[in-house]
């Protein structure tokens, strides 16, 4: 008997769930539902308004790239992935894979065995 009552009410139950999670790396909005695809977006709260920054994984990747570039640009010489990891506060393995992607994008260049530099962009 109880099962039938729940079946009749199922169209009235919220077909979508959304969760806002805030931590040291920022805010993320996660959502999924019966009629919607699963998503996770990065959010920013500023002046009383929430703004969608983009897909959470893309925004996180952009932050890693920014920190790696900042570490490379502050250095006087080329740096190894482990040195970059220490300076940027990112795991060494993550730095290595991100550097390979950044090289494909033309942001960094490998000089010698395991040594990287940021490519200078003319103003």
From TrEMBL:
What InterPro entries does the entry give?
Answer: ArsR-like_HTH (IPR011991), WH-like_DNA-bd_sf (IPR036388), WH_DNA-bd_sf (IPR036390)
This chain belongs to which protein, by name?
A: Transcriptional regulator
- Gene3D superfamilies, per the entry: Winged helix-like DNA-binding domain superfamily/Winged helix DNA-binding domain
User: What CDD domains does its record include?
Assistant: HTH_ARSR (cd00090)
**Which species is this UniProt entry from?**
Bradyrhizobium japonicum
């Amino acid at each position: 008997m109880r099962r039938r009552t729940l079946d009749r009410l199922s169209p009235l139950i919220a077909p979508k769930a959304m969760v806002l999670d805030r931590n040291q790396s920022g805010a993320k909005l996660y959502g999924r539902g019966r009629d919607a695809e699963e998503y996770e977006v990065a959010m920013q709260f500023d002046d009383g308004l929430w703004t969608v920054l983009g897909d959470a994984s893309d925004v996180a990747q952009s932050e890693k790239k920014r920190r790696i570039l900042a570490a490379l640009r502050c250095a006087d010489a080329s740096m190894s992935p482990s040195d970059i990891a220490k300076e940027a506060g990112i795991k060494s393995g993550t730095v290595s894979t991100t550097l390979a992607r950044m090289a494909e994008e033309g942001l960094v260049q490998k000089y010698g065995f395991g040594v990287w530099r940021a490519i200078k962009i003319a103003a």
